[in-house]
Amino acid sequence: MNLSFFDQFASPCFLGIPLILLSMLFPALLFPAPNSRWITNRLSTLQLWSLHSITKHLMTPLNKKGHKWALILTSLMMLLLTTNLLGLLPYTFTPTTQLSMNMALAFPLWLATLLTGLRNQPSISLGHLLPEGTPTPLIPALIMIETTSLLIRPLALGVRLTANLTAGHLLIQLISTAITTLLPIMPTVSILTMSILLLLTILEVAVAMIQAYVFVLLLSLYLQENI
C-alpha cells in the first residue's frame, strides 16, 4: 500500500473507533498525582516548578479577576506542551496537527473571554472596535475592519498551531526519507543530511514548546483586554 506524506496526520483507528481521544488523554497520565509528602522525587519537584513558572508568567499581567482563569490556562498549557512533545516521538500521532481539535480549543475559550468583557464592561469592550479620534468618514470602515479582526482571532489561533506543527512534521519526514534513499548510494551525503535532521529535530522541540506557550499567551492577552 502506498502511503503519502500526509497519512501521518490521519487519526488512527482501532476496529473503526478513532483513537484521537485516547491520544489526547494519554499525556495526563505522565504527570504524577499530588501527594502530602514533604519530600518528593525529582519528577514531582520539576512538575511543581514548571507549573509555578507557567502560572506566574501567565497571571502577572492580569488583575485579580483574571486569576480565576489560572487553572484553565495552566492546564491548557500543559496539555498542549505534552501533546506537542510526545508527537515528535517515532510512530506517534499528534492531535494538535488537526485543525478541528485546535479550533475546538481556541473558539470556546476566545468566546468566553469575549462574553466576559461584554458582561463586565460592555462599553469598554465595544470601544475597542473604534479607536479614539477616528475621523467620521472612516468610522464605518474601521468598525468593519476591527470586527473582522476580532472574529478571526480563534481562527488565527488554531491555524497558527496547526500550520507550524504540520510543517515541522513534514520537514522531518522529507529529510528522513532522503536519508534512507541516499544511504546506499551516497553514504557521506546521507550522514551530512542526518546532522541536518538532528538540528531540525532540536528546532522542532523548541517550536513545540513555543507554540504551546504562544497559544495560551494570546488567550491570556485576549482575557486581559476584557477584564
UniProtKB/TrEMBL annotation:
It comes from the Eukaryota. It is a multi-pass membrane protein. CDD domains: ATP-synt_Fo_a_6. One of its GO terms (molecular function) is proton-transporting ATP synthase activity, rotational mechanism. It is found in: Mitochondrion inner membrane. The chain crosses the membrane at residues 12-33, 69-89, 101-118, 170-190, 196-223. It catalyses: H(+)(in) = H(+)(out). Belongs to the ATPase A chain family. This is ATP synthase subunit a. It comes from Eudyptula minor.
